[in-house]
Amino acid sequence: MSLALLIDDGIALPAATRRQLRTEVARMVRAAARRDQRADYEVSLRLVDDAAIHALNRDYRHKNKPTDVLAFAQRDVATRGAAVGFDPAILGDIVISIDTARRQARRGLYRELIHLASHGLCHLLGYDHRDDAEERTMNARAAALRVEALRRGRVRAA
What we know:
Layout: E1 3-7, H1 15-35, E2 42-48, H2 50-61, E3 69-73, H3 74-79, E4 90-97, H4 98-104, H5 109-124, H6 132-150
Parallel strand pairs: 1-2, 2-4
Antiparallel strand pairs: 3-4
Helix pairs in contact: 1-5, 1-6, 4-5, 5-6
């Protein structure tokens, strides 16, 4: 499976929205794998509330506040030598705060979730946005992944 969708207790999201989110984010993951000439990647997507993402942000990034999305890349762990038996097909985990996504949503919650998922996936793939050039490159890749998520038919490289 390319995507594991985990939803914390207390997070209200209709079943149809969960199915659509799982399908479209899985398409993004497969599109990323195809671009890298891999059969697939494995990613987990966890939807949480602000309290949970605040704790993760504090504990792992030393930022004592909630945020919209966090990405925990397996590649980063392997690079630091902490991963025994590292599997390059396992990209890592994306964590999105539903609370923050709702506050930020300008064009609806679902579109915000897809936007944040593509952003987190780009971080798992090694992209960052420390300067304008990096941000443009990352945003272009995220946009290509979102287009592929919404397109019907066989998943193409993006």
